[in-house]
Amino acid sequence: MITFLASGLLLVSGLKAQSIQEGKNHLYADRFKSAITVFEKLLAVNPNNTEATYWLGQTYLEMDEIAGARVANTRQLYEKALQSSANAPLLLVGMGHVELRENKLNEARQHFETALTLTRGRKGDDPVILSAVGRANAEAKAGDYNYAIEKLLAAADKGDKTPDIFLQLGNAYRKAKPGEGGGDAYKSYKKALEMDPSFAIADLRLAKLFESQKNWDLFTEYLNSAIKRDPNYTPAYYELFYYNFFRAKFPEAEEQLQKYISSKLPEKDIQDEYLYAQLGWARKDFTSAITKAESVVVAMGDLTKPKVYRLLADAYLQKGDTLRKSGDSISARNNYVSAKKYSDLFFAKKNPEDVILPDYETKALVLGQLGGSEDEVYNTYLQGASLDTTLDAKLAFLKKGAKYFHDIKQYLGESKMLEKLISLKPKPTINDYFDLTLAYYFASNNAKSRETALAMSEKFPDQVYGYEWAFNNSQALDSVKKDSIAVPDALKLYDFAQKDTAKFRKQYINSVRYLAAYYVNVAKDKDKSLEFFTKWLEADAANAPTIQNYIDQIKKMPATKPGSTRNGTNKPAPAAKPKIATTVTKGTVVKK
């Protein structure tokens, strides 16, 4: 009888372990609903099954839901379980994992150490708890990766090793030493496969390892290897879908998408329609993309993921642009209104960490199409530039904002975007200053345009553009305020252009023409004016007859010195006529 009972207990224990493993297999294959079903069935039989509770929480954390909701659900699960099992070590580790996700690093470490202390025996720490601590720290963004490696290596030293330990060890190596930890990660994943040849997730991790190295041959090789180990290995099809998607191989992407969906059966997910929506969006079939994505919104309601709203906002925006170009302004506006609705929903529902720069670009473009003010659009771009992203990404985004304002001829907005770009850029280029100079110029802010041009000439003294545009702007300013800044600027441009009058012919002619006109019309300096008219004549053969006519007129004038009068009267010496045009036409500016 005792033997029979003992055998029965062993059988029950074996079934329990097998069921936990079944749930983990679903989890590792991203079949989250199936994993949840397994763990919930185990808890229905035994609500105090801490292992099932732990893995159910781990499944919640892995699901493709809003990050805040995942963490909140997992915390609630573990807190409730700890009320009846206050010192369950595995649940303490699970709670520490949640706290890492919440950036509560001290509380998390305390839970990990408490769990390890509670399970420490004569042979040291429990490998199950060591592995769970390692998993938490390897998985969480705020995790201590070196601490994870330490605990996982300790677990690997135990006799009852599992492939899970080496899987997490590989993950920890990858994150602890980006770039240089690949070798140790590779060995760990290979060790996991030696222990369990059906452990397809190790092949997936190997594929991701080579993805980071942009070794696409090995990336696809390991994904296909995972499928050979498990023909229903869902994540491999998912990765192959996006591999083809981002290479615009849409037929191949659709084939992998169909396999991805089939691999999860009987599990079905309305969210898969989002993947079809992405495919339609990429093909620029915006009507199909919108139909698929809105079917997800109808089915999910308030539980719709922000990324669905993101896609809908952009699809409606692009569809509106297409209709506007075809002349259907009414339908275009209707699409822009829908784009704004979904953009607003995205920003209302999103998690801060889920926002990317294109989200703000879409919002700005929609605002612009619906009559948003220049300040509203500018502030939207500025909000995007404040995201925690790379400097290169910020600068590229600000350039997009500047181009937007430039294209619609809102030059004040363009100048503000370019000001921000230059303030962030460690080493602004001459093109950056040139663009800002022109933006100010076309915004009729000649003072700021000249100021920027002068800065350009100081920073790039071997280039003509700063001198040229300081002069262009000072002419406009002098025509209004008579600040006497055009002549010094013209002389600086003249001095520079003399270095190579053939290369800088246009700038040379503009400067000597202006100076010639100035000395005869304003300064009343006959000799000086003739000097510059002669230089102009030598450089501008096409206009030689006209210039020679000016010279002949001036030579006939009485000899006067600057500031003198004729015949003792207060009347100035006669000016050469007609006066020389010295202004620059805005519409003819061409950037080098």
Q: What does the model show?
A:
With 592 residues, the protein is mainly α. The chain has a domain at 446-588: Serine Threonine Protein Phosphatase 5, Tetratricopeptide repeat (Alpha Horseshoe), CATH 1.25.40. It is 72% helix and 0% strand. The chain contains 29 helices and no strands. Helix 12 packs antiparallel against helix 13 (234-245) and helix 24 (446-459) runs antiparallel to helix 25. Mean pLDDT is 88; it is low at 1-17 and 564-592.
Task: Output the keywords.
disordered C terminus; mainly alpha; 592 residues; Serine Threonine Protein Phosphatase 5, Tetratricopeptide repeat; disordered N terminus
Question: Main β-sheet: number of strands, strand sense, barrel status?
Answer: none
Tally of helical segments: 29
Provide the structure class.
Answer: mainly alpha
- State the end-to-end distance: 96 Å
SSE run: HHHHHHHHHHHHHHHHHHHHHHHHHHHHH
CATH class of the domain at 446-588: Mainly Alpha
CATH topology of the domain at 446-588: Serine Threonine Protein Phosphatase 5, Tetratricopeptide repeat
Any guess at the CATH architecture of the domain at 446-588? Alpha Horseshoe
- What portion of the residues fall into strands of 2 or more residues? under 5%
Helix content: over 70%
- Name the average pLDDT: 88
Large-scale geometry: elongated
Determine Rg (CA atoms, Å): 36 Å
Poorly predicted regions: 1-17, 564-592
What's the total number of strands? 0
List the helices and strands and how they pair.
Elements: H1 2-28, H2 32-45, H3 50-62, H4 67-84, H5 89-101, H6 105-119, H7 127-139, H8 145-156, H9 163-176, H10 182-195, H11 200-212, H12 216-229, H13 234-245, H14 250-263, H15 272-282, H16 286-300, H17 306-325, H18 329-349, H19 357-369, H20 374-385, H21 391-407, H22 411-424, H23 430-442, H24 446-459, H25 465-481, H26 486-497, H27 505-521, H28 526-539, H29 544-555
Helix pairs in contact: 1-2, 1-3, 2-3, 3-4, 3-5, 4-5, 5-6, 5-7, 7-8, 7-9, 8-9, 9-10, 9-11, 10-11, 11-12, 12-13, 13-14, 14-15, 15-16, 16-17, 17-18, 17-19, 18-19, 19-20, 19-21, 20-21, 21-22, 22-23, 23-24, 23-25, 24-25, 25-26, 26-27, 27-28, 28-29
